[in-house]
Hints:
Distance between the termini: 34 Å
Low-confidence stretches: 264-269
Number of strands: 16
Strand content: 25-35%
Number of helices: 7
Structural class: alpha+beta
Largest sheet: 7 strands, mixed
CATH superfamily of the largest domain: Fructose-1,6-Bisphosphatase, subunit A, domain 1
Amino acid sequence: MGASSYAEILQRIEAALDAARxxxxxxxxxxxxxxxxxxxxxxxxxxxxxxxVLRESLLREGEGWLSEETADNPSRLDKERVxxxxxxxxxxEFVMGLPExxxxxGYVENGVPVAGGIFNPATQETFLGALDAGVLxxxxxxxxxxxTTLDGAxxxxxxxxxxRGEWKAFENSSFRIQAMGSVAYKLALVAAGRAxxxxxxxxxxxxxxxxxxxxxxxxxGFAATLEKTDLVANRRNPLLPGLLASGLCLKDQLLAxxxxxxxxxxxxx
Length: 269
């Protein structure tokens, strides 16, 4: 990773991911007590513990904070620089003991995701990057897929969307589909060129995807909302329409593939 104007930010992200690593050492996947939020989303003591160490490691005076596990403070809307994090993306997989969960840290300037870090404690994979520095996967340079056709491509699908039957329309396509938990982890794999594309047809919150979008774009890839616009982060309502991401050369083909299946919902800014 070359010289970057976000060098200090990347150092903070790396330190925060290391702190999260220590927390997960205390909480074995598949063997942790689980509570459920309204809407039946699971939450564990690990979610809360990681949230605490991330905030302590990352946040500085004058910066905003948006986390799935922290009560939202509207003062973030007045900040130019904001941390948008999910302490544990893929809590269901974590509870089940599946190695498809991740810590997701995104850094935003004036609404633009410019740096991010994602760590999968089960696989010990760390993805770190910024727009002017590229992406590292476990310390090695990585870039998004250079594939030019969806034929034979590997597309990562939402495990829950596949289970609900939302991917049936794609089952006989010329590309391969792999169902997986944690949208953050899927985006990290796309950024590292380990998968060619991913998309979700259901709304996601900013904390689910901001870090991944920063990584995909830092790796030379393509990412957009289902409204076909760049992701604008730190909105009053953090709920976004679905997201798609791929290697840059697959952009037009991916948009054409997904277009008939888009059901965009109105989201307030």
